[in-house]
């Protein structure tokens, strides 16, 4: 081979080698931008850098990313890391801590709250966070409607000049001070403000975007910024380099992946495709605990899973039929079969960890004969046909809604009730149930703030029909007790009022309470700094990898 040919050969060889090296580098990171064991190993080999992307596998997609417009936990999982509130909960409890407000004062009569805001905070679009920004958010919320801002109605009693609206005014005293006046004392007011729906949005985004655009382009002050959303696939967040707390976040990127099947999600964790997974089946806990490459997390229990009975639809407008449903369903068997000892049978609409829980109430015992007798009294001795709605996604309070529905279906058949199981895509399921279209529906609630008001008033008061009261249950005596409890600042008196309300709700039986679970998550062994929050909305800015 002559000299010119050798030179040409050498150039071709160099070109091929470079191309092969490039392909090898591309294969070293996952489709999601680098996660799991591959990303960490590749980083260590290339210079000792640690993994900088957290991939969180979850059972369903978010409904929207504008926190005030949603009620579902899958949305709040994401928005919790984009937005911040005036006050925040503790790392693993619902005690009130500083947030975007560093300090606050409350007047002696409980009607005026003055918040001193944190300096040096900016929204992700560069807009300054100040008192005017706070006022802009409250103005937006207060001028909404219950079919748009469900939580605002539920937590603050109404909108604008409506009689039940507890907030009288919100004004900027100066650039860093906000004053909120109430029409009446509201004992859980600070806890309500700390809830995820009340994350503060950039005023520029509010003025420049439509409601539809805000739902898909979130702009907050939190540790992570929104990058992209591929529906039913993934949501990508990136580190907010201008975050006011320079210690956080620890990782550069968070990817939320939607993996509906529990087994597929666990397999993805075991193979290193994801780093953290929720909705772990209790039956898989032992396998995870026995795997040195994994670790198991228990979320502090503050939830209830239930079967809702829409009280405006026949035959569930009859309390005797609703009581019969309660006697017909074997709650203990459901807990034993699907929760593997990581739940307790529910008898009230709120969990025992919440102050004001009435433990004196005797739950409806599993008694098919009693159920048949009640149906006979209601003129339905031959039974009836109904639809039983099953959730399409695993939830913290119910790992497998379809299987629970099948167990309930079998129980109901024993007393002559023919239940047809139906389901819908998650966002559609929630919307149709909210509109009162279901006969009976499986659902649940993870407490937002650790207060009884957040369960009883939000879920079962007549004020919240069409928002979070999906059963359309109403009882004036219950309503009066719950409003009185809201306004009562004496904790002992508040608890007594809630216990009385639970007695009335128990008799009316708008729900079949099923279980209070201890939700499980699992992560890779090198994951550190993750703290599962009882509200189900987890901060991820503290997470890093060894």
Automatic annotation (TrEMBL):
User: Where does the record place the region Disordered?
Assistant: 26-53
Family, according to the entry, reads as follows: Belongs to the bacterial solute-binding protein 5 family.
What residue stretches are annotated with the Solute-binding protein family domain?
Answer: 95-465
| Residues of the signal peptide | 1-22
Q: Which PANTHER family match?
A: OLIGOPEPTIDE-BINDING PROTEIN APPA, PERIPLASMIC BINDING COMPONENT OF ABC TRANSPORTER
Q: Does the keyword Signal apply?
A: yes
Name this protein carries in UniProt: ABC transporter substrate-binding protein
- Please provide the record's keywords in A-Z order: Signal, Transport
């Amino acid at each position: 081979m002559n000299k010119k040919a050798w030179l040409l050969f050498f150039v071709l060889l160099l070109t091929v080698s470079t191309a092969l090296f490039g392909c090898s580098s591309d294969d070293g990171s996952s489709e999601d931008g680098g996660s799991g064991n591959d990303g960490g190993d590749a980083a260590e080999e290339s210079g000792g850098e640690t993994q900088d992307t957290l991939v969180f596998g979850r059972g369903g997609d978010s409904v929207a990313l504008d926190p005030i417009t949603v009620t579902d936990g899958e949305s709040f999982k994401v928005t919790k890391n984009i937005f911040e509130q005036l006050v925040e909960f503790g790392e693993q409890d619902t005690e009130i801590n500083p947030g975007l407000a560093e300090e606050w004062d409350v007047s002696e009569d409980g009607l005026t709250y003055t918040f001193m805001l944190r300096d040096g905070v900016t929204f992700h679009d560069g807009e300054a966070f100040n008192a005017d920004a706070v006022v802009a958010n409250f103005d937006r919320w207060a001028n909404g409607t219950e079919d748009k801002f469900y939580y605002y109605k539920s937590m603050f009693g109404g909108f604008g000049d409506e009689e039940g609206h507890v907030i009288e005014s919100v004004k900027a005293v100066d650039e860093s001070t906000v004053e909120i006046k109430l029409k009446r004392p509201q004992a859980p007011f600070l806890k309500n403000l700390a809830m995820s729906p009340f994350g503060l949005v950039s005023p520029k985004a509010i003025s420049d975007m439509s409601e539809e655009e805000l739902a898909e382009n979130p702009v907050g002050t939190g540790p992570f910024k929104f990058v992209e959303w591929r529906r039913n696939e993934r949501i990508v967040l990136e580190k907010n380099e201008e975050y006011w707390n320079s210690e956080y976040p620890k990782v550069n990127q968070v990817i939320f992946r939607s993996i509906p099947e529990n087994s597929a999600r666990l397999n993805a964790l075991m193979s290193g495709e994801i780093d953290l997974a929720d909705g772990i089946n209790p039956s898989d806990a032992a396998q995870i605990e026995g795997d040195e490459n994994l670790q198991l997390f228990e979320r502090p229990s503050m939830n209830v899973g239930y079967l809702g009975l829409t009280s405006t639809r026949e035959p569930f407008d009859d309390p005797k039929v609703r009581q019969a449903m309660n006697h017909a369903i074997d709650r203990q068997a459901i807990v034993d079969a699907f929760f593997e000892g990581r739940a307790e049978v529910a008898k009230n609409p709120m969990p025992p960890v919440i102050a004001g829980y009435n433990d004196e109430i005797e739950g409806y015992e599993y008694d098919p004969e009693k159920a048949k007798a009640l149906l006979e009294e209601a003129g339905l001795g031959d039974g009836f046909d109904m639809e039983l709605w099953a959730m399409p996604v695993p939830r913290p309070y119910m790992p497998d809604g379809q299987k629970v529905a099948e167990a309930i279906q079998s129980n109901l058949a024993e007393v002559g009730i023919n239940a047809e199981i139906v389901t819908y895509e998650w966002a559609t399921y929630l919307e149709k149930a909210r509109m009162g279209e279901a006969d009976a529906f499986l659902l649940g609630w993870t407490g937002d703030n650790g207060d009884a008001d957040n369960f009883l008033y939000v879920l079962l008061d007549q004020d919240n029909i069409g928002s979070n009261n999906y059963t359309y249950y109403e009882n004036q005596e219950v309503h009066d007790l719950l409003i009185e409890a809201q306004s009562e600042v004496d904790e002992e008196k508040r608890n007594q009022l809630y216990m009385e309300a639970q007695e009335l709700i128990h008799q009316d039986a708008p729900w079949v309470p099923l279980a209070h679970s201890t939700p499980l998550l699992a992560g890779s062994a090198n994951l550190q700094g993750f703290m599962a929050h009882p509200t189900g909305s987890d901060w991820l800015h503290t997470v890093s990898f060894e």
